[in-house]
Amino acid sequence: MKKVHLVLGSGGARGMAHIGVIDVLEETGHEIISITGCSMGAVVGGMYAAGYHAAYKEWMLRLTKTLLFKILDFTLTRQGFLKGERLFNLLKKVTGQQQIEDLHIPFVAVATDMVQNKEVYYRSGDMYKALRASIAIPGVFTPVLENGQFLVDGGVLNPLPLNLVQKNKDEFIIAVNVNGASSPTMTTLEVKQEVTALWKWLNPLMQKENKPKDLLPISEYSLRELLLSSYNMTQDRLASYLLKTYPPDILIEIPRNSCSTFEFYKARYMIDLGRNACTRALEHNQQPDGKPEVD
């Protein structure tokens, strides 16, 4: 039995690949002894730590575009157009209230406090409050306001929180970066296409705004499009820095063009992608003595 500290990165719907990674780790006899997650990585990790991995996976596999639209609770505010509360209320009906300190394994969710410009680490307290703060992509989800803090997605400062993990002898760290280099075998997903797809969903609620057209020059990007594009590029750069500064024992990478931020109805594809990427990484790092290769 190999003991693993699992670090799950942010990346919207690409984070569904984390589910497939966890499946393979369990099937191959690895013991996950801690999970540190950011944004979607925090959601998948939290559900696993609470003991509801299988139920959450099945729920995700049932998601369709229509069902996803019904789950999203839109709001017209200056700080975001999604509240995200309906989603977590649905999950809470399945799992009940969850306190982080009572989970089956140690768990940390990462958010960002915009007031103090610092990372916030949830190691105790209401798990769903922590997850809601961790997923709050600026300009998309409304922020979480509490105790003088203005909390948004942890990916703003730390999309792959490797700096929070320490290992002992005979333990190793596996990181899953879902903002990996684009794959030439996959259809390139430009930010413009990504935002346009989301805009089609929002169009009935945003009649007063102009829907963006495909393939406009970048000089004609709207504020919302520029925000999302900037956020994605910042996550890529920060993840690269974290990997160089805190190299894991095993790195599993999911191409950034495998799925757009909002395509949660592609669960089966992304879970399979996570399974395959994890299998390849484990095979590549396996030594004759059964220990991972460490660079």
TrEMBL record:
Keywords: Hydrolase, Lipid degradation, Lipid metabolism
Database matches in Gene3D superfamilies: Cytosolic phospholipase A2 catalytic domain (3.40.1090.10)
InterPro entries in the cross-refs: Acyl_Trfase/lysoPLipase, NTE, PNPLA_dom
GO MF, one annotated term: hydrolase activity
Top-rank taxon: Bacteria
Motif GXSXG: where in chain: 37-41
Keyword Lipid metabolism: yes
Domain named PNPLA: residues: 6-166
Protein name: NTE family protein
